[in-house]
Design goal:
Its EC number is 2.7.7.13. It holds the Pfam family GMPPB_C. One of its GO terms (molecular function) is GTP binding. The protein is of the alpha/beta class. It folds into two domains: 245 residues, Alpha-Beta Complex (Spore Coat Polysaccharide Biosynthesis Protein SpsA, Chain A); 158 residues, UDP N-Acetylglucosamine Acyltransferase, domain 1 (3 Solenoid). It is built from eight helices and 35 strands. Strand 4, helix 2 and strand 5 form a beta-alpha-beta unit. The structure holds guanosine-5'-triphosphate. Guanosine-5'-triphosphate (GTP) binds next to strand 1, strand 4 and helix 3.
Length: 414
C-alpha cells in the first residue's frame, strides 16, 4: 500500500504569489481549470493501491474543507485529509511530526510532493525505478538551462545507476544542470534517518548556539535530509523528460497553465473548448469554464483558461485573448480589447479597446530586463481591478481594487 503527502506551506509563505494569494491560498489557485494541488491529486489517484493523501501545512483547518469535499466526490478511491502543523515545521519537520498518521496501515512507501509545482508527475515510473534499487528515496529530477540551475537543488548522479552522489541546495557556482523537482518517493524506513537528522540538528544547536537561541523543531527536507542520504548510497534520481515548472511568482502560473493545457490537448482533449458553429474562434489549447459567457466574435488562444462566470463581451472587430493568458472570474471584457501573457483576477473589468499585456516567459524566469531594469514579464491584475477604455497596461503587477485611468509600463501599482 502507498500513501502521499502534499506539502502546502501556510499563509506566511507564497508571498511571491501576491497579489493573487491575497484572495486565495496559492495551493488552491486555479490553473488550467483546477486548483494547483488537484493536478497532484489526479496523478496520485492513478496509482494502484495508493490509499491516502495527507495535505500537510500550517493554514487554518477550514481552508481545505471545500477542496476535500470535492476530492471525496472526484477521487472516491483515495482518502484525503488535511493535517495542520502547530507552526511552520519546515519541509521535513511536518512529515516527522505526523509520522504516526503516515505510517498508519503500514504503507511500504509514500510520495512527498511540493504543492508549488506543475508537472507531468511520472509517479508510476518512479515506483518502478524505486523497486529496482535499495535506496530509501527516489527523487524526480529534470534538466534546466545551465544559467538557471543555481536557483534549484542541484544533484550529481552516477549515470549507470542513477545513485545521487552529491546534492546541493541552490549552489553558489554551477555544479549540475540536473535538479530536484520537489517530488520524492520514500521508503517507510526513512523515518529513522529523519530522526537522525533531527538529532544532528539538536546536537549542533547544543554545541554552538544554546546560549543565544531556543532550539526549534524545523527540519528542511533538502538540506537536512537529502544531503546525508546522498552521502550513504540511499538517494536515487528518476529523470523526467516531460514538462516541469515551479509555481513561485504569480506570473509563473501562466507557463504552468500552458503546460497543463498542452497536456490535455495531447491526452484529454474533451477537457478543452472546441470550435463549433457560432462559437468563438478557438486557437490551440483553451479551457473555458461552463459558466463563462464568451461572445462568438472573440478570438481565444492558444493556452488560455477562462474561469467561472467570466463575461467576454461583444467585439466590434473581435476581442482577442491570446498566448498564455490566464483568466479567472472576469466580470467583463469589452469590445476590441486584448489580453496577452497576463493573469486577470476575480471580478476585474477590461474596458473597450484596452490592452493588458505581458511578455513571453523565458525558460524558468518570470522577469525581463530592459535597459538594465528588471520587471515582470507577465502582467498580473489582482481582484476587482478596472482598466478603463483605451488604456494600455504592460508588464505591470496591479494590486486589488485599483481603477486604472492612465496607461502604465513596468510598474507595481499599489
Ligand atoms: P524557495 O525557492 O526559497 O521558496 O524554496 P523551495 O523552492 O525549496 O521551496 P520551499 O522549500 O520553501 O517549499 C517547497 C514546498 O513546501 C512548497 O509547496 C511550500 O508551500 C512547502 N513548505 C515550505 N515550508 C513548509 C513548512 O514549514 N511546512 C509545510 N507543511 N510545508 C512547507
Amino acid at each position: 500500500m502507498h500513501k502521499a503527502v502534499i506539502l502546502v506551506g501556510g499563509p506566511s509563505r507564497g508571498t511571491r504569489f501576491r497579489p493573487l494569494s491575497l484572495n486565495v491560498p496559492k495551493p488552491l489557485f486555479p490553473v488550467a481549470g483546477a486548483p494547483i494541488i488537484e493536478h497532484h491529486l489526479s496523478a496520485l489517484a492513478k496509482i494502484d493501491n495508493l490509499k491516502e493523501v495527507l495535505i500537510i501545512g500550517f493554514f487554518e483547518d477550514n481552508v481545505f474543507a471545500n477542496f476535500i469535499d470535492h476530492a471525496a466526490v472526484e477521487y472516491p478511491n483515495i482518502n484525503v485529509r488535511y493535517l495542520r502543523e502547530y507552526q511552520a515545521l519546515g519541509t521535513a519537520g511536518g512529515i516527522y511530526h505526523f509520522r504516526d498518521e503516515i505510517l498508519r496501515g503500514n504503507p511500504t512507501s509514500f510520495f512527498v510532493i511540493h504543492a508549488d509545482i506543475a508537472c507531468d508527475f511520472p509517479l508510476q515510473g518512479m515506483l518502478d525505478a524505486h523497486s529496482k534499487h535499495r535506496g530509501l528515496c527516489t527523487l524526480l529530477g529534470t534538466k534546466v538551462p545551465r544559467e538557471q540551475a543555481n536557483k534549484f537543488g542541484c544533484l550529481i548522479a552516477r549515470p549507470e545507476t542513477n545513485e545521487v552522489m552529491h546534492y546541493v541546495e541552490k549552489p553558489e557556482s554551477f555544479i549540475s544542470d540536473l535538479i530536484s523537482c520537489g517530488v520524492y518517493l520514500f521508503d517507510s524506513a526513512v523515518f529513522s534517518e529523519i530522526k537522525a537528522a533531527l538529532d544532528n540538528k539538536k546536537n549542533a544547536h547544543e554545541e554552538n548556539d544554546y546560549l543565544w537561541s531556543a532550539p526549534d523543531d524545523r527540519l528542511r527536507l533538502e538540506q537536512d535530509l537529502l544531503r546525508p542520504l546522498s552521502e550513504g548510497k540511499k538517494l536515487y534520481v528518476f529523470e523526467t523528460q516531460n514538462f516541469w515548472r515551479q509555481i513561485k511568482t504569480a506570473g509563473s502560473a501562466v507557463p504552468a497553465n500552458a503546460a497543463y493545457l498542452e497536456k490535455y490537448a495531447a491526452g484529454a482533449p474533451e477537457r478543452l473548448a472546441r470550435k463549433k458553429e457560432g462559437s468563438p474562434d478557438i486557437v490551440g489549447a483553451v479551457y473555458i469554464h461552463p459558466s463563462a459567457q464568451v461572445d462568438p466574435s472573440a478570438k481565444i488562444g492558444p493556452n488560455v483558461s477562462i474561469g467561472p462566470r467570466a463575461v467576454i463581451g461583444k467585439g466590434t472587430e473581435g476581442l482577442r485573448l491570446a498566448l498564455a493568458v490566464h483568466l479567472i472570474d472576469i466580470l467583463s471584457m469589452q469590445a476590441g480589447s486584448c489580453i496577452l501573457h497576463a493573469v486577470v483576477g476575480w471580478d476585474s473589468r477590461i474596458g473597450t479597446w484596452a490592452r493588458v499585456e505581458g511578455s513571453p516567459v523565458q525558460g524558468h524566469s518570470t522577469t525581463v530586463t530592459r535597459n538594465g531594469v528588471k520587471s515582470q514579464s507577465i502582467t498580473i491584475l489582482g481582484k476587482e481591478v478596472s482598466v478603463k477604455d483605451e488604456i494600455i497596461i504592460r508588464n505591470c503587477i496591479v494590486l486589488p481594487h485599483k481603477e486604472l485611468k492612465a496607461s502604465f509600463h513596468n510598474e507595481i501599482l499599489m
